[in-house]
Structure formats: C-alpha cells, structure tokens
C-alpha cells in the first residue's frame, strides 16, 4: 500500500463504496468528497459542511471504517477538513480527526463550506440569515377573534418555547385573506425578538419550489451533485422554518421529497415548523402520504371568516394605524357589507381613505356607501351552512330536528348528503367543520356524501334537478 497517494487511495475507496450504497446516496454523500492528503495512514478529506460530516458519521461510520482499513491498512485514520465559505471569505477551524482502528472513534472540532445558500448575505457570518419577515405582521397588529383564537394562542405558546412544545408542526389553514400569513409571520417575529440567536426563516412554497428546481437543474446540467446537497444543508440550518401555502407542493415529487427530508431533520433536531395551507391536511390532494401524516403530528388550527365584531375591531385598528379618523357609522357600514375576508375588508378601507384624500372630501357615510356599492354590490351573496341546511329542509319539507336526527330514512339521508355537497362547493368551510355543523359527522362521512351526490347527479335526472333547484335558491339574491 506504500505506493498509494491520497487521490488513488480515495479512488479505491470509492470503487468499493459505489458497489455497496445506492447510486443516489453515492452521488449525494460520497461523490462530493475531495481527498486532500495521505500521510502515515492518515487520510485527509474535504467535505462541504459540518452537517455533511455528521451525516457520514451517523449513517456510514461502519462502512467508512471497513473500507479505509481495507484500502489503507489496519491503522487507518481519517481527518475531515471542512471549509465554510462566507461570501468572499474562507474561514478555517480546527480539524476533526476520526480514528478507525479497533472501530473506536475520537472526534475533534472542524471547519465548514456553505455555497449557494439562497439567503446568505456575503461577508457576514454564516448564521446571519435574513428571516424574510414583514415587521407589519406582528402580534400587536393581529386582531384576535373567535375566528382565529386557537391559532393565535398556539402561536404565542410556540413563541415562548419554539421547537420544545406539542404544537410542532403548527399547521394553519383556511381560505384566502383570513390572516394565515400574518399569523405565521407574527410567530416568527415574536421568536426573533425573544431569541435573537435563533435562525428564523419565512418562505413561500413557490419560492422554495423555485430554489429546489434551480438546484436540481444546476446539478443535472453541470454534473454537480453538490447543488442538491447544498440546498438541503441550508434549510437544515434553520431553527424556525415557516412555509406558506404548502398546498403548492402538490404533484411536485422532487420538491416534496426534498421537503420531507428537511422536515424530518428539523423535527428530529427539536426545531420548530410552522406551515400554512388553504385546506386541512386531510383534504390536500397531490401530496405524498408520508408528508400528510407529518403535517398532522402537531396542531392543525383553522382560521375562519371574521365575525362582525372582529371585522369592526380590525377596521378601527387599521384606521388608527393610518392616522385617519373615520366616523363610527362608516366603520359599521364597511363591517356589515364586506364579509368575505380580512384582505378585502382592509382593501375597501384603504380605497375609501385614498378616495377621500385624492378628491379632498371628508369621509362620510354617503361617500362610503357610494364606494361600497361599486366594490361590493356584484359580489355573490354570502352563503352559510345554516342557510344551506334551512334551504334543503324547506325544499324537501322536513324539519331541522328530522334533518339532524340519527334516522336512516332514505329521504333524510339524501337531504343531509345534498347539504354537505353544497356546503363543500359553496362555502370555504373544511369538511370537518361541515360535518360538525350538519349532524355531528366526521370529515370521512362528508367526503363520502359528496362522492355519493356526484354519482347520483351523473346517473339520476330527478336527483340532478333537486340539487340544481336548491343551488339556484341559494345563489340568488333576495
């Protein structure tokens, strides 16, 4: 073995390893390693990060020890030389040495290499990562109501003890404009204030997807397997990871696989995850079962449309923050008329303020009414589950007591199924909420009811007419 140098020694090691591990594992964890030197049975190799070294130690220690002894000899030692690239600077730390004689391992400190990290600021320390948080989305600007109380309480609890609580992950879901992004970012802001040393990062699922695709494209076209590993390693640095709109991962297998490994690593390391979606995990389509099951590990909290009282409180808080005095009757009008979501409510308020400013008019009830007529009149009438239930009961001439009873009479069962089907199609309510309001059923029962109604609409002309008649009554403006 005396004629071996570091290059030939490591090449021989790779030939053996390549026949043992899967090709994907070989490309990710062994191909990126560079041999540096071989002196007195001590092989020095360069690896891209501390995490990379730790992963090798955790998953391939027996394999490495056996191969090194086979190629170099029974006294084979291994030194990891890890470089961290911080912008234009390379910083060296003490090396780590692993001794493979007699399968005993002794470890010392190392250096790191981080290239291609999407949020790394050149020239700064590697842990100084921009959290991508909007300071306006704080808890102080988040109005609490029945519609969001559970999510807000869980968020405050998480901010006191990130990663060390039962709400991991926290899964926030609900329709558009109901405050999911605001609440998720508020959690990140609060954690950053309480624990400035923690790495907090907010990222939209589409941004995450684009970063992964860029890494995968670079890896494929430049034959550089380091790019995917770099992408994974960057996200595994995060202490509090907030991913917005995870439903966007649907049918994107590569992105889902990458996020699965990141999720596992962070969760097992006691790091905090906060996820948002337009639907609860049970209703998400196009996502792998292994991901969906992990989304359910912590707490799922639904954000609902705000009540009149909450809408009014939001309008008051927003007008105060803008420094504009708005009459109570104007705020009341807006709160009564704009019901769909918080984003639209705020948009209408800002439109009113802008209109008054540009036309140099006072904000009056008359001005507000004119504006609301232009913005809100054409919106569909609000449809509640209670209204759907009452309309179905009236159509089939049954009472609410009969509708909510446990009877299995065919006409009652079908009425309930139609109500569930219309509730799913005409409201943004989750299956679980629909079931609880229509007889205390679970989401599986509601899903079965919807599928049954769809089948009957396709095969039964009379049944199709029933559903069409009821839907016309619901969407018509009285």
3D architecture notes:
With 478 residues, this protein is an alpha/beta fold. The chain has 4 domains: 6-103, GMP Synthetase, Chain A, domain 3 (2-Layer Sandwich), CATH 3.30.300; 139-302, P-loop containing nucleotide triphosphate hydrolases (Rossmann fold), CATH 3.40.50.300; 308-376, Helicase, Ruva Protein, domain 3, CATH 1.10.8; 385-475, Orthogonal Bundle (Chromosomal Replication Initiator Protein Dnaa, Chain: A), CATH 1.10.1750.10. The protein is 51% helix and 11% strand. It has helices at residues 6-18, 23-29, 50-59, 61-71, 149-160, 180-194, 205-221, 226-235, 253-268, 289-295, 308-321, 328-337, 342-359, 365-376, 385-396, 400-404, 410-426, 431-437, 443-459, 461-475; strands spanning 34-39, 42-47, 77-82, 84-86, 89-91, 96-99, 170-173, 200-204, 240-244, 272-277, 299-302. The protein has a 5-stranded parallel β-sheet, sandwiched between helices. Helix 5 (149-160) runs parallel beside helix 6. Mean pLDDT is 82; it is low at 84-126.
Element layout with pairings:
Layout: H1 6-18, H2 23-29, E1 34-39, E2 42-47, H3 50-59, H4 61-71, E3 77-82, E4 84-86, E5 89-91, E6 96-99, H5 149-160, E7 170-173, H6 180-194, E8 200-204, H7 205-221, H8 226-235, E9 240-244, H9 253-268, E10 272-277, H10 289-295, E11 299-302, H11 308-321, H12 328-337, H13 342-359, H14 365-376, H15 385-396, H16 400-404, H17 410-426, H18 431-437, H19 443-459, H20 461-475
């Amino acid at each position: 073995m005396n004629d071996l140098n570091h290059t030939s020694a490591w090449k021989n090691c790779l030939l053996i390893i390549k026949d043992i591990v899967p090709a994907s594992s070989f490309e990710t964890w062994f191909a990126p390693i560079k041999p540096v030197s071989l002196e007195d049975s001590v092989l020095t190799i360069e690896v891209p990060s501390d995490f990379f070294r730790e992963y090798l130690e955790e998953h391939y220690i027996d394999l490495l020890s056996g191969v090194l002894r086979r190629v170099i000899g029974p006294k084979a030692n291994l030194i990891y030389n890890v470089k961290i690239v911080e912008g234009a600077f390379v910083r060296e730390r003490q090396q780590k040495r692993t001794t493979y004689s007699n399968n005993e391992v002794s470890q010392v400190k190392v250096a790191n290499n981080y290239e291609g990290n999407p949020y790394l600021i050149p020239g700064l320390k590697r842990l100084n990562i921009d959290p991508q948080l909007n300071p306006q989305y704080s808890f102080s600007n988040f109005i609490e109501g029945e519609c969001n109380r559970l999510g807000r309480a869980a968020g405050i609890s998480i901010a006191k003890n990130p990663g060390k609580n039962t709400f991991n992950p926290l899964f926030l879901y609900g329709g558009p404009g109901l405050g999911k992004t605001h609440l998720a970012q508020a959690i990140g802001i609060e954690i950053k204030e309480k624990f400035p040393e923690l790495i907090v990062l907010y990222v939209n699922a589409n941004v995450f997807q684009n970063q992964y695709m860029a890494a995968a494209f670079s890896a494929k076209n430049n034959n550089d397997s380091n790019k995917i590993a770099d992408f994974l390693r960057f996200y595994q640095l995060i202490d509090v990871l907030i991913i917005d709109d995870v439903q966007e991962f649907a049918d994107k297998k590569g992105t889902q696989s990458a996020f699965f490994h990141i999720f596992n690593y962070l969760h097992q390391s006691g790091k905090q995850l906060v996820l948002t979606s337009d639907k609860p995990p049970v209703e998400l389509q196009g996502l792998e079962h292994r991901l969906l099951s992990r989304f359910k590990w912590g707490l799922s909290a639904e954000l609902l449309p705000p009540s009149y009282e909450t809408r009014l409180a939001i309008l008051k808080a927003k007008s105060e923050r803008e420094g504009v005095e708005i009459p109570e009757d104007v705020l009341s009008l807006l709160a009564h008329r704009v019901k769909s979501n918080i984003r639209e409510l705020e948009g209408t308020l800002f439109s009113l303020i802008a209109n008054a400013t540009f036309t140099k008019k006072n904000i009056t009830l008359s001005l507000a009414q004119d504006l609301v007529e232009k913005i809100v009149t054409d919106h569909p009438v609000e449809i509640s589950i209670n209204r759907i239930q009452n309309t179905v009961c009236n159509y089939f001439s049954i009472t609410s007591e009969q509708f909510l009873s446990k009877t299995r009479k065919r006409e009652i069962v079908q009425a309930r199924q139609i109500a569930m089907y219309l509730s799913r199609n005409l409201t943004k309510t989750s299956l679980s909420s629909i079931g609880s309001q229509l007889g205390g059923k679970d989401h599986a029962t509601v899903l079965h009811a919807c599928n049954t109604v769809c089948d009957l609409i396709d095969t039964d002309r009379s049944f199709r007419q029933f559903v069409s008649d009821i839907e016309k009554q619901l969407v018509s403006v009285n």
